[in-house]
Structure formats: C-alpha cells, structure tokens
Amino acid sequence: MTASKTFDVAVIGAGVFGAWSAWHLVRLGQRVVLLDAYGPANARASSAGESRIIRMGYGTDELYTRSSQRSLGQWKSLFQATGQQLFHETGVLWLAGADDSRLRQTMATLKRCDVTFEAMERADLERRYAQVSFERVTRGFLEPHSGVLLARRAVALVVEDAARMGVEFRIAKIETPTASSHLAAVKCSNGETFAAGQFVFACGPWLGKVFPDLLGPRIFPSRQEVYFFGVPPGDIRFAPPALPTWLFQEDEYYGMPDIESRGLKIAMDHHGERVDPDTQTRIVSGENARAVSEYVVTRFPALRNAPIVETRVCQYENTSNGDFLIDRHPQMENVWLAGGGSGHGFKHGPAVGEYIADRLLNKGTAEARYSLRTKETVQHRTVF
Ligand SMILES: Cc1cc2nc3c(=O)[nH]c(=O)nc-3n(C[C@H](O)[C@H](O)[C@H](O)COP(=O)(O)OP(=O)(O)OC[C@H]3O[C@@H](n4cnc5c(N)ncnc54)[C@H](O)[C@@H]3O)c2cc1C
Predict the structure, then answer these.
(1) Sheet strands (E) in the chain
(2) Most buried by CB count within 10 Å: which residue of 41, 108, 349, 383?
(3) d(CA 214, CA 71)
C-alpha cells in the first residue's frame, strides 16, 4: 500500500457539488485533493449532459430562491474570470394550468427576494410565443435573467480553475470508509490511500452505494430521460431569443430552446424507476420516446415530424422530499456527506460548495433542512 501526502480535505466526487466544494476550500487556503472514479461530470454522473436550468422560482421556498440568486452570481463571475461563456440568459418561462396557486406563491417569493419577473395572461403568452400551443395553460411569468448553464463543460471549468488554484485532481475509486470515529485516510480500489484532516463524500447518486447501511435507504436514484428534437431547417423560432426555457410543472415536462444547435430539449420531471448509476442502460425506452414525441406536438405543432437528434439517460439522486443532504457523518466526526440534489441541485453548485467549505471550517450556521436527521426512508416530494 502506498501512502500519498496528507491534505487538509479530500473531496470524493467531482460532480457539481464536489467541484465547487473543492473550489471554495482551496480559496479559503485549504490543501485539497479532489478524487473521482470516472472524471468530472462524467457520462454516468448526475452533473453530466449538455445543459441545466438555472431559475430563481421555488414556490414559497425562499431557501432555494436565495441560493439560486447567490449561485448565479458566482457562476457568472467564474465565466467572466475565465473568459468562458457557459451561461445562456434564455429567460425561464413558468406556465400554470387550472390551479395557478404555485405560480402565485412563486411570484410572491420572487417579489420578496427582489427577483425581476414579468407576469403574463394566456393572451399575452399567445401573442409573444406564437410557436407554442398554450393548451390547458391559464397564465405564466417570465424570469428574464435566468436561463441555462452548459453543465458538463461548466463542471470541467470549475475543476480546471480549482486545479489552477492548487487543488490536486486524481482519478480514483474510493472504497467505503470504515473508521469508528476519526477517519485518517481513504483507500482507493488500487490500494493507494489519501490521508486528510476532513473528508467530503459528494458522490451524488452513488452515496447509497458508498454508505449502504446509512444512505442506501435514504438516497433514491431515479432514471431520467432527456430528448433533443431537430428543428426545421432555417427556422429560428425554437432558438433563443425567440423561445425561452420553460416549465409546466402540472405536466411534469420542461424544455429548453435550441442552444448551440443541439435541438429543442424536452425532459420529463416525473421520477423514473430506481437505478444503479454504474450499470443502468443509457438507451432511452421506445415507450418514453413515443410519449415525449406526442407531447412535443401538443406544445409545438410545427415540430410534428421533428426527428429526435440526440438522447441522454441520467439519474436524479433524490432525498425523501427533495431537500439537499449536507451533514456530518453520524459516527465519523471528520466525514461529511453532500448530495441529494434531487433533480434541481445543479444550479446551486456554487452556494452548496460555499456552504460545505464554511461548515468544514466552522463558519456559518447549519441549515436544518440539509441535515441527515430530516432524511427519511420513504419519498414524499415537496421541493420542485
Ligand atoms: C436529467 C437531469 C436533469 C436535471 N436538470 C436540472 C436542471 O435543469 N437544473 C438543476 O439545477 N438541476 C438539474 N438536475 C439535477 C442536478 O444535475 C444534480 O442534482 C447535480 O448535478 C448532482 O451533482 P452531484 O455532484 O451531487 O452528483 P454527480 O454529478 O453524480 O457527482 C458525483 C460524482 O461522484 C463520483 N463518485 C461516486 N462514487 C465514487 C467513489 N466511490 N469514488 C470516487 N468517486 C466517486 C462519480 O463518479 C461522480 O462524478 C438534473 C439532473 C438530471 C439527471
């Protein structure tokens, strides 16, 4: 067994949560090693894929609205500092059906948090977005300054910037730690060890595999399929600025305009079956492809014969209600658990990383909703 040098912190997992944790920790003067079994935002990770929505609205939930606001500022600063433009300000359009209570609650929260938005009745929506069918939609609102993060490339950039500041990045699969109270080092599958003062396990949908007794019953990885539809040639109605990112939570569908000519993105937010992130098939099911194609026609009649030009299969790493899990391990006092992004975590990477760094360095206050004790073994989704 070879022993490596000692670090202040070893972060296991270079998805969006681990990458931003390492970034903030090194900025605060910590010697950090970042370890990932496959690589930053690798094809199996929950942070993989082309794009993720960053929106401010979360119903009545100020916690996540404020976290999104804080995060968008940090994403933009990073992109500006590195000269990479990985945020598209497409705007995010919220749509409501017969029951518009969540829409109203969201607008009230945005007002309290000073987020700009523009409310629209159905007639306004139809005038402004003639390429969309607003069947069953009563009203909506637009967050004009929200949009899309180019996910995979953004995580790679965070890791690159963290490495520039001194984080050591290594490909390594870490085994389940077994200390009874204080963990001295983690062990890799090849026998190498990494010693550190503290450890952050930001293993996303793998958390239940790394800590099977503790988190196996508390992290619910669900299969999620994403589709890109080819737009008609020469047609710019489905690209920004003509079409914003949109979500209609009643239908459990959301989508993005044609960004970087990848096609119109459509995804189902409904939780799919439980899956193993190492082994689940990444081929979409014929049944879902048919359902999504039918849905596209109902919302975008001009895309009736649009071909599916790309698909992706990923997994959400849900907690019982959708609140993140960021807490100390109950037995190993220098081990931290970070994950439970639950289908909405990507945008929050910067604020989550900052929170984790503060907790490790005994700064800031603990958020009760992120605690392990609030994570149950039966799902009741309340955060969307
Ligand atoms: C289809 C889809 C759409 C989504 N849409 C949005 C959206 O629009 N907006 C939004 O904000 N969020 C969205 N999300 C949620 C968001 O992407 C995730 O919550 C977030 O990316 C989770 O990041 P993570 O760092 O916790 O996990 P991951 O990205 O999965 O990272 C975990 C890492 O840990 C590594 N790892 C695991 N075990 C080990 C081990 N033993 N040793 C070493 N390394 C290990 C893995 O290789 C992996 O790289 C979506 C998710 C999916 C799947």
Answers:
(1) 3-12, 32-36, 51-54, 87-88, 92-96, 118-121, 139-143, 147-150, 168-171, 185-187, 193-201, 220-229, 245-248, 253-256, 264-268, 308-318, 325-328, 335-339
(2) 349
(3) 29
What tens digit of pLDDT does each residue of 262-300 get? 999 999 999 999 999 999 999 999 999 999 999 999 999
For the CA of 19, the closest atom of ligand 1 is 25
For residue range 54-81, what is the model confidence (pLDDT) as tens digits? 999 999 999 999 999 999 999 999 999 9
Whether 349 lines ligand 1, by a CB cut-off of 6 Å, is no
**And the tokens for 364?**
């800031």
SS3 142: strand
97-125 confidence digits (pLDDT tens): 999 999 999 999 999 999 999 999 999 99
Residues 6+ apart with CB under 8 A from 24: 353, 354, 356, 357
Atom in ligand 1 nearest the alpha carbon of residue 347 = 11
CA distance 18 to 133: 40
Per-residue pLDDT, 249: 83
DSSP classification of residue 269: -
Pair of tokens at residue 240 = 């920004």
Q: How far is the CA of 192 from the centre of ligand 1 (A)?
A: 25
Cβ of 158 less than 6 Å from ligand 1: no
Q: What is the pLDDT of residues 316-343, one digit of tens each?
A: 999 999 999 999 999 999 999 999 999 9
CB neighbour list of residue 363: distance below 8 Å, 6 or more residues apart? none
Residues 138/122, Cβ–Cβ less than 8 Å = yes
Neighbours of 287 (CB within 10 A): 8
Q: How far apart are CA 344 and CA 62, in angstroms?
A: 15
Q: pTM of whole model > 0.70? A: yes
* Separation of CA 311 and ligand 1 centre (Å): 17
- Using CB atoms within 10 Å of the CB of residue 107, give its burial: 0 to 12 exposed, 13 to 18 middle, 19+ buried: middle
Tell me, using a 6 A CB cutoff, whether residue 45 lines ligand 1.
yes
Name the residue of 46, 187, 225, 336 to mutate for ligand 1: max ligand atoms within 8 A of Cβ: 46
